[in-house]
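Exercise 7. Predict the joint structure of the components listed below.
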Amino acid sequence: MQGFEPLTVPSEKNGALDLGFVECEGGVCAAAGMAASGVSAGFRKNPNRRDLALVVADQACTCAATFTQNRFCAAPVQVSRERAKSGVARAVVLNSGNANAATGEAGLKTALESAEIVASALGCDPEQVLVASTGVIGLQLSTEHFLTGVPLAVHALAHEAEGAHNAALAVMTTDTHPKECAVQGQVGGRTIHVGGFVKGSGMIQPNMATMLAVLSTDAPLSAQAAHSMLLAAVRHSFNKVTVDSDTSTNDSCFLFATGAAGGEEICEGSQAYEAVAAAVRYVCDDLARNIAADGEGSTKLVTVDVLGAANDQDADTVARAIANSPLVKTAIFGHDANWGRVAAAAGKCGVPFDQQQVDIDLLGVPVCRGGLDVPMDEQDMLRRFQDDEVSIVINLGMGQAHTRIWTCDLTHDYVTINGDYRT
Amino acid sequence: MQGFEPLTVPSEKNGALDLGFVECEGGVCAAAGMAASGVSAGFRKNPNRRDLALVVADQACTCAATFTQNRFCAAPVQVSRERAKSGVARAVVLNSGNANAATGEAGLKTALESAEIVASALGCDPEQVLVASTGVIGLQLSTEHFLTGVPLAVHALAHEAEGAHNAALAVMTTDTHPKECAVQGQVGGRTIHVGGFVKGSGMIQPNMATMLAVLSTDAPLSAQAAHSMLLAAVRHSFNKVTVDSDTSTNDSCFLFATGAAGGEEICEGSQAYEAVAAAVRYVCDDLARNIAADGEGSTKLVTVDVLGAANDQDADTVARAIANSPLVKTAIFGHDANWGRVAAAAGKCGVPFDQQQVDIDLLGVPVCRGGLDVPMDEQDMLRRFQDDEVSIVINLGMGQAHTRIWTCDLTHDYVTINGDYRT
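Solution:
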């Protein structure tokens, strides 16, 4: 042992916890003025599985959204992307079991009709209803299940944690558990909440948003403030998750801001903005980590930190190359501290660096310094592999830029799940 | 069924077979003036496995080579890349079991010493001996096994097929079988041969060359001609293979041209050049397909053809996105004609196209036209999945550029093989 010190990963400054926020119950309903429900509407064959989620603000309110950049974007993405431009919305309806993607004009018509069904049940303008779908690509989605399911969902709407939880359940596909998070804290003398849920397990390498996420806050955000804090949070959270490098056709992330906490409108540049933005970021980070940890078939959450990159783009490219490497991911599944695969993944992606300057830590242990092997205690490594989280840190020695990406291991269960998903 | 015609994939014009070449025996020894051997030298724990290959030209001759672009390139790559610049070589020595990568100055010294050991046994200039290694990254390679193994390998050198075959065996790692190919044909009234072997099964997305390939011809190529025809062949063959998107640290491809067939030196621009280039391309294509078919854990060779791309780069990007998609690869393993995953993979990679113009065929059957589902006979698809080869063809409707990439499915065995490779 040559007594090398582990690499130091920079920590976020002014995180939500530093600003006095604490985690709380309630998910997407933690924010005052938000109700939600999740019901079984027949999109899935299994009548015991909830498959229709509805999230409704008590009144039309500020809403920001981001969407997939996949060229094969789904019909609901096309509809919601257009409608979100207004910065105002009342509700979002989400179904699982069918993605309504690659469905052409008929799919667009269904997406519009589903919003109309919700609008008529809520008594609001259809333009204020957003839509999202997740599931199989290429199959037509019928409006029938919306006709029967939406009245049930409206009836079940609740401002309590149970409503939020049922909504989170209803959007699950191969997720093994619902993913919710909420925080509360003081901003300008008033208590505000930020919460939400997300679904996502496979076809996960979000680009501008994750599979499906609905966030809400009772802070009185301006449309511009909601939009910019959502974009910033998504860029550093959902967009830093990769389960299998496959960007979905349906990624959508919505942020409702009801303003029910009261107080003056919050705009960019204020201290209040920074506080709410930190809370939004906290919730997004938590949900993003959860997506990676619940990646299809995964046994480990893997955190990849790239330090010492020449610039942000290089840091991101190297982090993604490592996080998407099947060889790295299977080595972790096999509890194999095979840092050579990390080095090879970093080296393959076109980012310039000098291998003699590269340091790598696995599981908090220095395993490579100056591009060379550092002898490790294999028994100690096997013990460390018992943790649910695996940390990979690489320092390229080229500059000051750094990034973090979350992924998971590649396992037999991933192959099983995706080898017979549709048939 | 709406009677759609399958997409038409452009075929190569003036292929080697069109020019009268036929496959023959002999692998890398098919070319006159080439000898090879493969022995057990102790690089591997299993004394029954050959792990040292030696390929020797009767005299120093024209030699071209291409290497990995991985920044973490191995010591033998650094040595051979420098030496290959002369355009002349006598021999290449290859070992399996240890990649001599991420081994610093000590690794470079070992690579140079191994060449000296070979040079002294053959009685040639060490500068004319090239080196290549494959195996685990990050471990020091000892010269000891070269000291004992090289004399055995020199003693075993043979001009016959058996020597070539033993060399092909000695470079195998997780390959399930040796990969050799050779052709012969008439060029300018003389019979010339092109042959070679390759190893590669995992960490395969070559960038400038494949894992390890040694090719030879008895055609009298100029150094410039050998270099340019090798580059062209590699670009369309080995560089179009991806098993797992992981570019190796050790990729090396060598072409020896002994000139033993006689006749005038062949330079670029001549008819003879085109004929030999077609033969080199044929051998590279065959070996490249073989790498994909023998990808770690694979049950299927998958051919991805992208048609109608706006340009070559777009075609390549889309083809790689599809070929590297874990969701596409697991669907094939599961015999699931899930074209939505092909569409999503094409859409995620940033290449612009209009989803309403996209056509997709799976296994020769139209499954998507104009971005929409074409009903298929599931029983017929399951029957077609019995073949060893799976064809994916996508037309982006954006232009005339097209490309083909080879890959394989992603299976439980890939996870098993890579989950416990090192430990």
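Discussion. Chain A is about 30% helix and 25% strand.
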